[in-house]
């Protein structure tokens, strides 16, 4: 915290990078991490909020304004393969680290939504519980992450329409779980997640064929 505290003591306005993610819970697709830096002072965008509190249409409008008016921004996709290799927590931390590495030279302090920080960050950082409801740069990051992931899942629906990713974005809804049971996982499913593992096991099991009683030829 040395860098952030020093800026406060000088009385200079802080350059803050807000960081948030979307997609830790779904069974398929990436986790998307976004970082947003606004110029010190009043945030140049009205209507920012936690992305979960906004309609999809409103998020799309704010996405374009954030991209246009932010001092700097970065969006990082953490693939399903990396999630399976590292586990969801460490994969998310890795995505946050990469996002911050792209912007740290533009900021005094990073504020991350949540209660944990990635290790070895190159700048001062703070973990803010419920930060996406408290800090406008985190709100903006949550919107970029959510919109980017939703767009990606829409593209997955076009590739794998049987799973209806356009409806549930990869979350474990009844429609998604039914598709998993019927079709097995697609290449973008997270094999380390229990419902996908169950679908893989079911897919690997041989079909049981009921034996018919022997009858003498007529």
Automatic annotation (TrEMBL):
<dbReference type="InterPro" id="IPR024567">
    <property type="entry name" value="RNase_HII/HIII_dom"/>
</dbReference>
<keyword id="KW-0255">Endonuclease</keyword>
<comment type="similarity">
    <text>Belongs to the RNase HII family.</text>
</comment>
<keyword id="KW-0540">Nuclease</keyword>
<dbReference type="InterPro" id="IPR036397">
    <property type="entry name" value="RNaseH_sf"/>
</dbReference>
<protein>
    <recommendedName>
        <fullName>Ribonuclease HII</fullName>
        <ecNumber>3.1.26.4</ecNumber>
    </recommendedName>
</protein>
<keyword id="KW-0378">Hydrolase</keyword>
<keyword id="KW-0479">Metal-binding</keyword>
<keyword id="KW-0464">Manganese</keyword>
<feature type="binding site">
    <location>
        <position position="113"/>
    </location>
    <ligand>
        <name>a divalent metal cation</name>
    </ligand>
</feature>
<dbReference type="InterPro" id="IPR012337">
    <property type="entry name" value="RNaseH-like_sf"/>
</dbReference>
<comment type="function">
    <text>Endonuclease that specifically degrades the RNA of RNA-DNA hybrids.</text>
</comment>
<feature type="domain" description="RNase H type-2">
    <location>
        <begin position="14"/>
        <end position="205"/>
    </location>
</feature>
<dbReference type="GO" id="GO:0004523">
    <property type="term" value="F:RNA-DNA hybrid ribonuclease activity"/>
</dbReference>
<feature type="binding site">
    <location>
        <position position="21"/>
    </location>
    <ligand>
        <name>a divalent metal cation</name>
    </ligand>
</feature>
<dbReference type="InterPro" id="IPR001352">
    <property type="entry name" value="RNase_HII/HIII"/>
</dbReference>
<feature type="binding site">
    <location>
        <position position="20"/>
    </location>
    <ligand>
        <name>a divalent metal cation</name>
    </ligand>
</feature>
<dbReference type="Pfam" id="PF01351">
    <property type="entry name" value="RNase_HII"/>
</dbReference>
<dbReference type="InterPro" id="IPR022898">
    <property type="entry name" value="RNase_HII"/>
</dbReference>
<keyword id="KW-0963">Cytoplasm</keyword>
């Amino acid at each position: 915290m040395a860098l952030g505290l020093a800026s406060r003591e000088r009385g200079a306005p802080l350059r803050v990078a807000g960081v948030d993610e979307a997609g830790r819970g779904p069974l398929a697709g990436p986790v998307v991490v976004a970082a947003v830096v606004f110029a010190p002072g009043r945030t140049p965008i009205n209507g920012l909020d936690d992305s979960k509190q906004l309609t999809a249409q409103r998020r799309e409008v704010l996405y374009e304004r954030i991209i246009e008016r932010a001092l700097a921004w970065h969006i990082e996709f953490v693939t399903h393969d990396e999630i399976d290799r590292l586990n969801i927590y460490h994969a998310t931390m890795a995505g946050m680290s990469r996002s911050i590495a792209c912007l740290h030279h533009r900021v005094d302090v990073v504020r991350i939504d949540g209660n944990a920080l990635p290790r070895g960050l190159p700048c001062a950082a703070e973990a803010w519980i419920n930060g996406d409801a408290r800090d406008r740069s985190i709100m903006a990051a949550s919107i970029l992450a959510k919109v980017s992931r939703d767009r990606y899942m829409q593209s997955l629906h076009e590739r794998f329409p049987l799973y209806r990713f356009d409806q549930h974005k990869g979350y474990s809804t009844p429609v998604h779980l039914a598709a998993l049971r019927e079709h097995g996982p697609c290449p973008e499913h997270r094999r380390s997640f229990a419902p996908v593992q169950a679908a893989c096991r079911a897919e690997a099991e041989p079909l049981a064929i009921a034996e018919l009683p022997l009858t003498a030829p007529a």
